[in-house]
TrEMBL record:
<feature type="region of interest" description="Disordered">
    <location>
        <begin position="386"/>
        <end position="421"/>
    </location>
</feature>
<dbReference type="InterPro" id="IPR035979">
    <property type="entry name" value="RBD_domain_sf"/>
</dbReference>
<dbReference type="InterPro" id="IPR000504">
    <property type="entry name" value="RRM_dom"/>
</dbReference>
<dbReference type="GO" id="GO:0009897">
    <property type="term" value="C:external side of plasma membrane"/>
</dbReference>
<keyword id="KW-0249">Electron transport</keyword>
<dbReference type="Pfam" id="PF00076">
    <property type="entry name" value="RRM_1"/>
</dbReference>
<feature type="coiled-coil region">
    <location>
        <begin position="297"/>
        <end position="331"/>
    </location>
</feature>
<keyword id="KW-0520">NAD</keyword>
<keyword id="KW-0186">Copper</keyword>
<feature type="compositionally biased region" description="Acidic residues">
    <location>
        <begin position="389"/>
        <end position="400"/>
    </location>
</feature>
<dbReference type="InterPro" id="IPR012677">
    <property type="entry name" value="Nucleotide-bd_a/b_plait_sf"/>
</dbReference>
<dbReference type="InterPro" id="IPR034140">
    <property type="entry name" value="ENOX_RRM"/>
</dbReference>
<keyword id="KW-0813">Transport</keyword>
<dbReference type="InterPro" id="IPR038876">
    <property type="entry name" value="ENOX"/>
</dbReference>
<feature type="domain" description="RRM">
    <location>
        <begin position="132"/>
        <end position="211"/>
    </location>
</feature>
<keyword id="KW-0472">Membrane</keyword>
<dbReference type="Pfam" id="PF23267">
    <property type="entry name" value="ENOX1"/>
</dbReference>
Length: 615
């Protein structure tokens, strides 16, 4: 029985492969043509069970009512296709990593045969946005709309079908996800019933279709989502937006009295001054409340002294904090110097020989780290001192500029100012004269006016008298300025004569010095030493100390020896700073190499007197 079943299935597979390759031409559904008698349902059920499918006849009727698909299934065989009659669902999308196995699908009016699994998957176009419509091509010529509904209704609810006379149609589903289920049928060969006629067979081609209804619904849905997103963002912005300040009330007597009390309170002054500023900018000041506004402005002005005191207090606290930081940094530097001194003492031969090689390596590394940290903090402290010196020099420059300005405002500057004032007074005097002449002309015209205009004439006479008095005052002031101008000019002449007399005395002294005999005095040629312009007072002091030290050591000294001497005087002096200062003064200090081989050493020498030669 098993041998006959195997032979019948081999023949069935050969017939199915030939029908899929060359088309179903002369395939009959008799039991003789299939190679398996339909009267033997047991063999048919066993074969279907081995393939993992429910035993079904060619008409779609189950052969065994009590069949359990979980029993008797062969290992390695894919499970039955869920699109078979009785299930009515399409499997969920299968991952790309797992191979897709398509099986035969039996419907009431037709049968769907899967494509060759070795062929590439059918090509599809790019999916339009919101696609719910599919194109179905390759339908049999005798296919009806009822048949299309029977096949594709298992994928999902169908909204509309537009069938063409050329063996294709468009199917619109209710949901977008059903389109993917319909694409699963692309490549299947369909056969109506058991007929082998060419008009009853066809190969399905399912693809995405672009429909205006789908695009319109998708755009409406996108607009709705955009509106919801904007609404959500607006709500979030409203929640995150800081609350608006309370509105400022308009001016009234009651509000004015309350604001006056708030202006006197230091804690409420910022809010009160904002209200007062708003009232003034609104233009709520008039003749009736001008006194109230004046008193409030006066109260605001009284806070200036308090604010200045607070500023001075904060500045004092800042200076104290700076001084405290500087003192703490100086103490830290002293401790660093002590640590470095300990390392240097340990590096001497008396103690160095008693340490092991690893200990010496660690001590050398620790000493270098401590020196680097010490130099960094030392440069920071020197930077603070330089900033203080620059501030002091800026203050000195400001004082010098003020004194220079005061010196420049001597007799010449005063004379120029008096001349400008004299010119302005002359212009004012001419203007007053013109006004007086105009008033006199008007008075002459008014002499023939009847007595009813006597009041206007009185006011004009009064104006004329005021102008005359002002003119007299201006003339007196002009005469006074002229006298002062004459005095200044006399002082300038006397100062010029004094200057000439002093210049003549200087010339006479120079002539007498040239005629003095210089026979017994040796001629000494001293070169001019050009010092850098940026040499500070501290650098000059260090230069004098180093010059004295090197003058005592005529064979020179190393930079470490010089720094050790200077650090006894001031522990805040660094080696890099001293070496930079020596390099900036090449006319005073020179660096030379002494020794041979391993004892080669760089030494600095004092050369300030080498340029002086006597003849």
């Amino acid at each position: 029985m098993e041998l006959s079943t195997e032979k019948s299935w081999r023949k069935h597979a050969a017939v199915y492969e030939s029908s899929r390759t060359y088309g179903i031409r002369s395939m009959n559904m008799d039991s003789g043509q299939m190679g398996m008698p339909m009267s033997d349902p047991g063999a048919w059920a066993t074969a279907m069970n081995n393939l993992g499918m429910a035993p079904m006849s060619m008409t779609g009727q189950p052969l065994m009512s009590d069949f359990d698909p979980s029993l008797g299934m062969m290992t390695g065989i894919a499970p039955m296709n869920p699109m078979m009659p009785g299930l009515g669902i399409v499997p969920p999308p299968i991952s790309q990593d797992m191979p897709v196995v398509k099986e035969i699908i039996h419907c009431k009016s037709c049968t769907l045969f899967p494509p060759n699994p070795n062929l590439p998957p059918p090509a599809t176009r790019e999916r339009p946005p919101g696609c719910k419509t599919v194109f179905v091509g390759g339908l049999p010529e005798n296919a009806t709309e009822q048949l299309i509904v029977e096949v594709f209704e298992q994928c999902g609810e169908i909204v509309a079908i537009r069938k063409s006379k050329k063996n294709f149609c468009h199917i619109r589903f209710a949901e977008e996800c059903t389109v993917d289920k319909a694409l699963f049928l692309s490549g299947y060969r369909i056969r109506l019933g058991s007929s082998t006629d060419k008009k009853d067979t066809g190969r399905l081609h399912v693809d995405f279709a672009q429909a205006r209804d789908d695009l319109y619904e998708w755009e409406c849905r996108q607009r709705m989502l955009a509106r919801e997103e904007r609404h959500r963002r607006r709500i979030e912005e409203d929640l995150l937006r800081p609350p608006s300040p309370p509105p400022i009330v308009h001016y009234s007597e009651h509000e004015c009295s309350q604001l006056g009390e708030k202006l006197k309170d230091d804690s409420l002054f910022p809010d009160a001054i904002r209200v007062l500023l708003t009232w003034v900018e609104r233009g709520e000041v008039n003749r009736r409340n001008a006194n109230n506004f004046y008193s409030m402005i006066q109260s605001s002005n009284s806070h200036i002294r308090r604010l200045m005191n607070e500023k001075a207090t904060h500045e004092k606290e800042m200076e104290e904090a700076k001084e405290k930081f500087k003192n703490a940094l100086a103490g830290i530097l002293v401790q660093f110097e002590q640590i470095v001194s300990v390392f240097r003492a340990a590096s001497k031969q008396k103690a160095w020989d008693h340490f092991s090689k690893a200990q010496r390596k660690n001590l050398d590394m620790w000493r270098k780290q401590a020196e680097e940290i010490r130099n960094i903090h030392n440069e920071e402290l020197m930077g603070i001192r330089r900033e203080e010196e620059m501030e002091m020099s800026d203050d000195d420059m400001e004082d010098a500029s003020e004194s220079k300005d005061s010196d420049d405002s001597g007799p010449a500057a005063q004379v120029e100012a008096l001349k400008e004032e004299n010119d302005s007074l002359r212009c004012q005097l001419d203007a007053y004269r013109n006004e007086v002449e105009l008033l006199k002309q008007e008075q002459g015209k008014v002499a023939s006016v009847p007595p009813q205009h006597s009041e206007e004439e009185a006011t004009r006479r009064q104006q004329l008298s005021f102008l005359q008095q002002a003119l007299q005052g201006m003339q007196k002031q002009l005469l006074k300025i002229r006298d002062e101008l004459k005095q200044r000019e006399a002082e300038l002449e006397r100062s010029a004569e004094e200057k000439q007399r002093l210049e003549s005395q200087v010339q006479s002294l120079q002539e007498r010095g040239r005629s003095f005999p210089l026979a017994h005095t040796p001629q000494v040629r001293i070169p001019r030493l050009r010092l850098p312009d940026t040499l500070t007072y501290c650098d000059a002091s260090i230069q004098r100390i180093i010059s004295t030290f090197l003058h005592v050591h005529p064979f020179g000294a190393s930079i470490e020896y010089i720094c050790s001497y200077l650090q006894r005087l001031d522990t805040k002096i660094s080696t890099s700073e001293v070496e930079a200062l020596l390099a900036r003064l090449p006319c005073t200090f020179t660096q030379q190499l002494t020794g041979v081989g391993a004892s080669l050493e760089k030494r600095w020498k004092f050369c300030g007197f080498e340029g002086i030669k006597t003849t």
